[in-house]
């Protein structure tokens, strides 16, 4: 029943339209039913179509549903056609499934907000765009969704528009990803010029015939596509927008900036892996960028105090793992990790949203503490999510991350493997730091209360400062389901083998047995270090913060290695300067010289008309002399 | 004959509405609206019923065949100088005629409340201007073309000078009107010289004095002469487009013009330049144009970047949109001179999409001005919470301006870039940075005008009972929603436009290609 496939995105689009045109006229409940229901129907359609796909596997590995021709100019033909294969089905399931749960949670989280309907309308539009991105069988169709999710991300980051800082964060996200998108657009130009098509299957068939491995043009194309991928997936060097994007409401962070949109880069590389494999240099860059990003983000996460920013850097770091895997040719584990990460990171973000509301819109973990007694269910969710994040055995993250590291090792990418291993240690340190400081230790919110720093917007009717949990089903159900998925998600078998190749492992070598256990050891070491530093001996980090050198490093980490500062100085400041000084358009001034010159000449000429006879005679005489001189000298 | 009516009806309608003011102030508006709606309907009917697979562009009469147009009209006019009243319609001119009439309807509708003084004379000027523009798109005689080219200026001059704004700190509407007039007049003179030179060259070679497009298409000329004559045409069109550094009349004209004038300017007047290049500039001088292409394309790049950077720092919302237009028109210059089929189709789509989106933005500027009595962006801020409908609509058109896929502007810009890449990769890559800059300035506008905390209202502006400003009326909503629908249609199914423009675009491309590959000229020079 593949013909139902378009319904997957039609439902959210209809939801968007109803909500967009019904703004202000729909009650909150009605808006919730439309907004959440549309994604629910989309998820149901996905399940139905997916079941059908898996039971009637097509011989070619993919079904294509053509919709209509978008553009056809000479040899340039672009179809709106949906392609369903194992990879897009996986993405589809994550987007609609996790998306539905997050919508359900959001319908609880956003209660009472002025823009309730507007929020859900943007969320629905996002889901539709994201579905275009993963269903498009043409790079330009993919680009369509790619830009669409960017716009929705912009709208949702800046959702609380009255605060100019949110607007700045939203613009930063859009513009920085647009830089990447432009690289990607240039890659599209090259591909069209070389192959006369942007259809992904065609490209993957034609490119290896035309380009030798390592051909300069192949490298250029792959690097430009990588530029698009790093922009969307917040990897070095276009990573700086993601932490700022946390200005959006927390469900947005969960859906867009953890589970779906930021993994679009991973998807893009997997989708066009044939093009990447034509360039070993680009593959090295993919893996290298992943490794460096996961480490830099890991260190940065260590120093953050905002609960959402910790999770943001953690997301950046986990996507680094996926890039690392792809760089090693291990596409299947990368997509596998994409899925498990969607489960546990959505769980973590939603739980953090619950914590934030329980703390009356407080996001600083150093103003929390001891919360496990107050909100035990959220604590359980957070703990399970963290265990999955740190790849605790038999949670979902364990299977995917272990596979990434194992395959990186077996394919001979030892430096990537080492980076990933150290990253696992870092992950455990910063993740458990979050757990220990937020849920254990002293109840710092009591001090805040005592010092009169009670929070202004306590609109839930509890005593000021006292954390309070939520008790409704629309809060519990999404968390509970995600909790289950975060635990057992690792047992899901993805139908990827028809789409993505296996990593090239020489001679069925499995390496020394201890290799498989090292990630666990690293995580446990991180857990212990975290426990010692942040729960047992909090005076140690405090002392470190006082040392000159350590404080400097801490500051560097806290400011994410100074990339924001660098980019401001290199790009933003000169642009703003150039725009400011040329506000009045100097060309207008230059052209204004022409009438000014004419006027000047006119007044000069007027000045010669003095009316004095002697002056006229003198000038006439001088002219005559000049004339004679010219004639004589000629 | 129907072509003559397309031009004549607006002129008659203009006269009628001028006279109708004696009876009531509303009557001229209705007459003008019905007139333009009538010609819009007619032009759409022509679109639906005509066969647009033929075009006379690029036809060399030497081949002994008669050039043919979808609809053609020729009558004697001034036989003594060889000028005739010769009109022709093909897919390209049809699309632009439809656009002109559509923008005309919108220009009338958006002035419904704005224009209170001399309503009749206002509509006379507006309709004569529109009629003149339609004439430009139909004329196949260079004398006639030049006649219309000059004729559309005078009404526009009056629109700016008489109904324009004198914004505080600006140089005044009369200054802007005169600047507009001098720029266009001076550059038009260059074109006139070129036309006359061509006519004389043609007479020398064939003994026939003629201003006719078909005759002049195969005027024999030396490379040097072709170069200079091409520059004369380019000069006129570059000012009108406008190409940086000949652009500075545009922000002033937009800044002071009434809303209808701005809509008209951005929506169609600028497109006459692109049309002129496609119809005349390149077919008349293919070799010189091909040789000049690198310069022109770099000028396009400069325009894209310069316009975007200057737009970023503008505080007057209309000057802002004017500079973004300059930036968008840069893409059109690149596309025309890249000369591939994709790029040229992109140019056609971009012309229409920009006409719709810039027109819509100027209408929105007018609506904001009506309500806030200011065009200073820094005094807007937080409009999102002041109106229910205006801000999301403005966001939509900002998204169009930044080239969001799904809307027409994206199709235009992407086709231009993908089509130009083969011809000029470096130019294309630098031009692509315009996509980033467009995001920067568009979102900065959204931030300053719509988002942020609501600013204190300017003096004399009152909120209504719900604490809001007066939102869009039904008339304004219908205008906006139809523009949105059209822009989305163009973004999702541009084929309907591109199929219509296919024949002329292919003709231009063939001419251009023949000129860039000299060995082929001898073989295919006759008939594309």
From TrEMBL, chain A:
Gene3D superfamilies: 1.20.5.2700
Cellular component per GO, a single term: endomembrane system
Ranges that cross the membrane: 7-24, 30-51, 88-109, 116-135, 141-161, 173-192, 212-231, 252-270, 282-303, 310-328, 334-357, 377-396, 416-440, 477-494, 514-534, 613-633
GO biological process assignments: ATP synthesis coupled electron transport; electron transport coupled proton transport
Subcellular location: Endomembrane system; Membrane
Main location: membrane
Domain NADH-Ubiquinone oxidoreductase (complex I) chain 5 N-terminal as annotated: residue spans: 70-119
Membrane topology value: Multi-pass membrane protein
Location of the NADH:quinone oxidoreductase/Mrp antiporter transmembrane domain: 137-427
GO MF, any single term: NADH dehydrogenase activity
InterPro entries documented for this protein: NADHpl_OxRdtase_5_subgr (IPR018393), ND/Mrp_TM (IPR001750), NU5C-like (IPR003945), Proton_antipo_N (IPR001516)
Alphabetical keyword list: Membrane, Transmembrane, Transmembrane helix
Protein name listed in UniProt: NADH-quinone oxidoreductase subunit L
Organism annotation: Hydrocarboniphaga daqingensis
From TrEMBL, chain B:
Membrane topology: Multi-pass membrane protein
Bilayer-crossing regions: 27-47, 91-112, 119-140, 146-164, 176-201, 227-250, 262-285, 291-313, 320-339, 351-369, 390-411, 423-446, 477-496
Taxonomy, superkingdom: Bacteria
Assigned keywords, A-Z: Membrane, Transmembrane, Transmembrane helix
A biological process term (GO) from this entry: ATP synthesis coupled electron transport
Boundaries of every NADH:quinone oxidoreductase/Mrp antiporter transmembrane domain copy: 139-433
Localization annotation: Endomembrane system; Membrane
Alphabetized Pfam families for the sequence: Proton_antipo_M
Keyword Transmembrane helix: yes
Main location group: membrane
Listed GO CC annotations: endomembrane system; membrane
GO molecular function, one term: NADH dehydrogenase (ubiquinone) activity
Family in the record: Belongs to the complex I subunit 4 family.
NCBIfam families: NDH_I_M (TIGR01972), PRK05846.1-1 (NF004498)
Protein name: NADH-quinone oxidoreductase subunit M
Protein source organism: Hydrocarboniphaga daqingensis
């Amino acid at each position: 029943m593949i013909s139902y496939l378009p319904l997957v995105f039609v439902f959210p689009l209809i939801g968007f339209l109803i909500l967009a045109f019904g703004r202000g006229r729909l009650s909150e409940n009605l808006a919730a039913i439309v907004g959440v229901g549309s994604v629910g129907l989309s998820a149901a359609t996905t399940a139905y179509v997916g079941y059908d796909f898996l039971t009637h596997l097509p011989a070619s590995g993919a079904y294509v549903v053509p919709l209509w021709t978008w553009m056809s100019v000479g040899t340039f033909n672009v179809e709106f056609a949906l392609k369903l294969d194992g990879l897009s089905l996986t993405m589809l399931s994550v987007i609609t499934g996790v998306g539905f749960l997050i919508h359900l949670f959001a319908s609880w989280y956003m209660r009472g907000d002025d823009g309730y309907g507007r929020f859900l309308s943007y969320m629905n539009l996002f889901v539709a765009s994201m579905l275009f991105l993963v269903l498009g069988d043409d790079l330009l169709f993919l680009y369509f969704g790619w830009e669409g999710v960017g716009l929705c991300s912009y709208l949702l980051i800046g959702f609380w528009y009255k605060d100019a800082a949110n607007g700045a964060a939203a613009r930063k996200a859009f513009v920085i990803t647009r830089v990447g998108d432009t690289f990607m657009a240039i890659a599209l130009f090259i591909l069209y010029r070389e192959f006369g098509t942007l259809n992904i299957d065609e490209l993957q068939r034609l490119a290896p015939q035309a380009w030798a491995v390592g051909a300069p043009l192949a490298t250029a194309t792959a690097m430009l596509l990588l530029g698009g991928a790093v922009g969307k997936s917040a990897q070095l060097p276009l990573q700086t927008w993601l932490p700022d994007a946390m200005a959006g409401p927390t469900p947005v962070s969960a859906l867009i900036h953890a589970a779906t949109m930021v993994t679009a880069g991973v998807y893009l590389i997997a989708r066009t892996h044939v093009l990447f494999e034509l360039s070993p240099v680009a593959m090295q860059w993919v893996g290298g960028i992943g490794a460096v990003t996961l480490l830099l983000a890991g260190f940065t996460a260590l120093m953050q105090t905002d609960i959402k920013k910790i999770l943001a850097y953690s997301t950046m770091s986990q996507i680094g793992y996926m890039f690392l895997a792809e760089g090693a040719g291990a596409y299947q584990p990368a997509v596998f990790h994409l899925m498990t990460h969607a489960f546990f990171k959505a769980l973590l973000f939603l739980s953090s949203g619950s914590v934030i509301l329980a703390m009356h819109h407080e996001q600083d973990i150093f103003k929390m503490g001891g919360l496990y007694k107050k909100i035990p269910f959220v604590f359980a969710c957070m703990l399970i999510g963290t265990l999955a994040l740190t790849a605790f055995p038999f949670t979902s993250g364990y299977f995917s991350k272990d596979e990434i590291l194992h395959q990186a090792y077996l394919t001979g990418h030892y430096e990537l493997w080492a980076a990933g291993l150290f990253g696992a240690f870092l992950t455990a340190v910063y993740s458990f730091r979050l757990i220990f400081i937020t849920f254990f230790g002293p109840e710092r919110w009591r001090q805040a209360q005592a010092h009169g720093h009670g929070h202004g917007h306590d609109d839930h009717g509890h005593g000021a400062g006292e954390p309070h949990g939520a008790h409704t089903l629309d809060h519990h159900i999404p968390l509970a389901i995600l909790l289950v998925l975060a635990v057992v998600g690792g047992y899901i078998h993805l139908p990827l083998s028809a789409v993505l190749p296996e990593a090239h492992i020489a001679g069925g070598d499995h390496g020394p047995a201890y290799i498989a256990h090292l990630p666990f050891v690293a995580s446990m070491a991180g857990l212990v270090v975290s426990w010692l530093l942040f729960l047992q001996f909090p005076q140690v980090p405090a002392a470190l913060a006082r040392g000159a050198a350590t404080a400097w490093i801490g500051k560097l980490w806290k400011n994410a290695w100074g990339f924001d500062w660098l980019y401001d100085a290199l790009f933003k400041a000169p642009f703003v300067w150039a725009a400011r000084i040329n506000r009045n358009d100097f060309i207008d001034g230059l052209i204004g010289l022409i009438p000014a010159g004419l006027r000047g000449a006119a007044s000069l000429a007027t000045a010669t008309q003095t009316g004095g006879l002697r002056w006229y005679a003198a000038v006439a005489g001088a002219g005559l002399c000049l004339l004679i001189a010219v004639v004589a000298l000629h | 004959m129907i072509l003559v009516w397309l031009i004549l009806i607006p002129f008659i309608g203009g006269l009628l509405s001028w006279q109708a003011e004696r009876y009531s102030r509303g009557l001229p508006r209705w007459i003008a609206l019905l007139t333009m709606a009538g010609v819009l309907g007619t032009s759409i009917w022509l679109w639906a019923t005509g066969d647009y697979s033929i075009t006379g562009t690029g036809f060399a009469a030497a081949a002994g065949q008669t050039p043919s147009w979808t609809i053609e009209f020729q009558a004697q006019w001034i036989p003594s100088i060889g000028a005739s009243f010769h009109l022709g319609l093909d897919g390209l001119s049809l699309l632009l005629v439809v656009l002109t009439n559509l923008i005309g309807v919108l220009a009338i509708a958006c002035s419904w409340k704005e224009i209170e003084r001399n309503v009749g004379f206002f509509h006379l000027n507006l309709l004569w201007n529109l009629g003149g523009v339609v004439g430009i798109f139909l004329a196949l005689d260079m004398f006639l073309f030049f006649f219309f080219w000059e004729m559309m200026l005078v009404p526009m001059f009056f629109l700016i000078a008489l109904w324009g704004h004198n914004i505080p700190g600006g140089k005044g509407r009369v200054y802007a009107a005169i600047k507009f007039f001098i720029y266009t007049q001076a550059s038009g003179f260059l074109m006139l010289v070129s036309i006359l030179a061509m006519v004389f060259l043609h007479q020398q070679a064939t003994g026939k004095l003629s201003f006719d497009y078909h005759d002049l298409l195969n005027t024999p000329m030396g490379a040097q002469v072709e170069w200079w004559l091409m520059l004369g045409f380019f000069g006129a069109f570059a000012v009108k487009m406008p190409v940086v550094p000949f652009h500075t009349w545009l922000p002033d004209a937009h800044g002071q013009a009434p809303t209808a004038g701005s809509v008209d300017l951005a929506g169609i007047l600028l497109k006459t330049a692109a049309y002129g290049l496609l119809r005349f500039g390149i077919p008349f001088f293919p070799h010189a144009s091909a040789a000049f292409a690198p310069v022109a394309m770099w000028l396009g790049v400069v325009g894209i970047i310069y316009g975007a950077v200057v737009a970023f720092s503008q505080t007057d919302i209309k000057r802002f949109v004017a500079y973004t237009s300059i930036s968008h028109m840069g893409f059109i210059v690149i596309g025309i001179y890249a000369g591939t089929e994709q790029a040229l189709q992109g140019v056609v789509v971009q012309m229409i999409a920009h006409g719709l989106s810039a027109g819509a933005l100027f209408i929105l500027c007018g609506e904001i001005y009506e309500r806030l009595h200011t065009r200073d962006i820094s005094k807007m801020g937080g409009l999102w919470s002041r109106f229910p409908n205006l801000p999301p609509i403005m966001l939509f058109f900002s998204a169009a301006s930044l080239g969001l896929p799904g809307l027409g502007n994206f199709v235009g810009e992407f086709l231009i870039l993908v089509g130009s890449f083969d011809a000029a990769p470096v130019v294309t890559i630098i031009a692509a940075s315009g996509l980033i800059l467009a995001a920067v300035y568009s979102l900065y506008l959204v931030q300053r005008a719509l988002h942020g905390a609501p600013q204190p209202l300017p003096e004399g502006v009152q909120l209504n009972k719900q604490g809001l400003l007066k939102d869009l009326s039904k008339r304004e909503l219908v205008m906006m929603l139809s523009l949105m629908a059209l822009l989305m249609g163009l973004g999702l199914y541009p084929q309907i436009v591109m199929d219509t423009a296919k024949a002329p675009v292919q003709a231009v491309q063939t001419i251009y290609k023949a000129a860039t590959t000299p060995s082929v000229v001898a073989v295919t020079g006759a008939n594309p």
